[in-house]
Fold this sequence. Notes:
Order of helices and strands: HEEHHHHHEEEEEEEEEEEE
Distance between the termini: 89 Å
Helix content: 25-40%
Strand content: 5-15%
Number of strands: 14
Strand order of the largest sheet: 3-6-9-10
Number of domains: 1
Structural class: alpha+beta
Number of helices: 6
Amino acid sequence: MKHRLSRRAFTLIELLVVIAIIALLVGILLPALNKARVAARLAIDGSNLHQYLISTANYSTDFKERMPSFSWRAGPTRNQSGVPQTAATDVEATAFQAVDILRRRTNWSDFPLQGNWIPHILYSHLVVLDYMNAQLPLPAMRSPMDRLRERWAEDTRAAKVAIESDSTTGQSNPTGARWAFSSSYLFTPAYFTPDQEANGGMVQQGENQSFFIVSAGPGTAPYRLGDQKITAVRFPSSKVVLHDQQGRFQGKKDYPMFHRSAAINCGYYDSSVRQTITGDTNLGGYWGQSGNFSSAFVTYIARTGLGEALWPDYLPPGGTPPPQPGRYRWTAGGKTGTDVGSSPYWNRFPGRTARAPN
């Protein structure tokens, strides 16, 4: 007598219960996985900054305590596009040097010359990467949360075309070519400027984050950009040298660095990397050539085309946030000042406290 083995299938209710349990587990695990992913990217971000700091320290050791900075000066320079160039000013010479680095460190041998460019402000990282013999674009020069620069790095030529497009004139703009090799991390101006304005020279914040005011002084001594020594830093553990431009690890929206609630990954002169709350830092200011201090304030206007964060607070249509303190971007006293803790120069700001009111 043959016995037939019976097979029992899942009922619809049992299948729905299993699906519900899986959905519940996914709902429980996803936030934890997301937190772990963000923590991992934050660690990568800190590692990138630390690499920059170590390379900067090594450069200073090799070059008589000088911090990495563009070094070409006015006069004949190396060939650009096969034609000998003569730089009229030191600033023009450094623009030629930055293009030379980009041509040597990328696969873009005909990288276009850049007009009216002061590369110290946003491109000092090129000198560090050249010292490292790095091939550009280097993943370590951008935050793992900086999706815009990641897309640019995937196809630098396509990025150039996209940035250069001008809906008004239809003309190409060669200055757009450099953005694909820009960095998420910026060196503070004290890195490449004298601490005190002198001889008519100065570098200050312009009307918003995108613009800087540079006087004629950088082409003449004693106010010359670059050639700064790391030994001039008095408080290495309290002075920011390198920082991300945005708070990228605070949820779904990025925070601009000038917002007092922004948590910014900052690299300090003692080679430490710490996430720093902007509102916990000193206000910042300029040290004039007469010995006086003036406050540094920024009216932040985001360039959304370049991926800059919008101001998170409510603003009326077409409105802009009120001016914000420059903070560690413009340390009072430059390399001799502090960004966290007490400031040795703050008593020179009449009627001001070291930190902005709540």
